[in-house]
Amino acid sequence: MAYVIHDVSERQWCQYFKDQHVEVIVEFKFNNIPVDVDNPSFEIYKNGQLIQDFYILKPLTKTDPPVIGKYHATFLTTGLEKGDYTFKAKGVYQGTNLLVEGSFTLVEVPRRQWYIDTLRGILADKYQIEVPWEFWTHDPTKKEWRDGQLNDYLEMAVRFINILPPATVHWQLETIPCSSLVLLGAQIYALLSKDIMEVHNYFDYRTPVSVSLFRGREYRAIYQWIERSFTDPAKFFKKSWVLNTIRPRAIVFPRIAFRVLRPLSMVLHFTSYGIG
């Protein structure tokens, strides 16, 4: 028995971000009974050919916490092309060679979908705890946010960055160069929406036993903490990006007092030079 857990949901990778993390978990059995094995190994194949060079992070080892028969391996998709792959997990139990086989598919997705999947993972959406391993695993029946909602939060984050000074550059979600800031901003809007929903669902009953159902303050505390890590870095990034990538420009105003010209140049993010 084997299955694959992706840090990016739906077993997808992005043509712009090809270093996705993959975890494979297998279970060795002998006579249908889980057993631990000696000399565990892990191999990947494509079209029947063994992949010799791929970015293995953790060779096939016992899961943590250890469970009889359970082993996992992790690797990055660096250097792997899109397509169907098979894997083989091998081990030896009391002189008998055991083999577990499975498959996975790497699919190219647009950058926008990569953002949506990544944001969903950051928000711990569509996950559940699987006991006794205590692994977060995907649960396709549980979604708190639809793709369209996450897309809206991402767009709102981009618009926020665009309105920051200087107003000389405007990005689209597909072209903005600061993906980490976009994801931070989108988290703020997503958690803010949860806070608003909790306000609508607020319930407080005090007689004869006090019962209060309100989690909004927890969401608020999280997005306010994230906001402190987002707003100032976003301002700094945009100013630095414009200064380092946009060609210098000059505006010449004859017979305008410097005390007037200097504030104007600062608004447009120009550098003021006094010429005598």
SSE layout and pairing:
Elements: E1 2-6, E2 12-14, E3 21-27, E4 29-30, E5 33-34, E6 38-46, E7 49-50, E8 55-62, E9 70-76, E10 83-93, E11 96-109, H1 111-122, E12 127-130, E13 135-138, H2 147-163, H3 179-200, E14 203-205, E15 211-213, H4 216-228, H5 231-245, H6 258-267
Parallel strand pairs: 2-11
Antiparallel strand pairs: 1-3, 3-9, 4-5, 6-7, 6-10, 8-9, 10-11, 12-13, 14-15
Helix pairs in contact: 1-2, 1-3, 2-3, 3-4
Descriptive notes:
The protein is elongated. The chain folds into 3 domains: 2-109, Sandwich (Immunoglobulin-like), CATH 2.60.40.10; 147-245, no CATH class; 249-276, no CATH class. With 276 residues, it is α+β, with helices and mostly antiparallel strands. The longest helix has 22 residues, at 179-200. The protein contains 6 helices and 15 strands. Helix 1 (111-122) packs across helix 2 (147-163), helix 1 crosses helix 3 (179-200) and helix 3 (179-200) runs antiparallel to helix 4 (216-228).
Offer a concise description of the structure.
The chain is of the alpha+beta class and 276 residues long.
Given helix and strand content, the structural type is alpha+beta
Low-confidence stretches: 1-17, 127-138, 272-276
Q: Percent range for helical residues? A: 25-40%
Strand order of the largest sheet: 2-11-10-6-7
Give me the CATH architecture of the largest domain, please: Sandwich
Query: What is the CA-atom radius of gyration, in angstroms?
Result: 26 Å
The number of distinct structural domains comes to: 3
CATH superfamily of the largest domain: Immunoglobulins
Average of per-residue pLDDT values: 76
Through-space gap between termini = 81 Å
Name the CATH class of the largest domain: Mainly Beta
Number of helical elements? 6
- Strand percentage lies at 25-35%
Number of strands: 15
Order of helices and strands: EEEEEEEEEEEHEEHHEEHHH
Describe the largest sheet: 5 strands, mixed
**Oligomeric assembly:** single chain
**How would you describe the shape?**
elongated
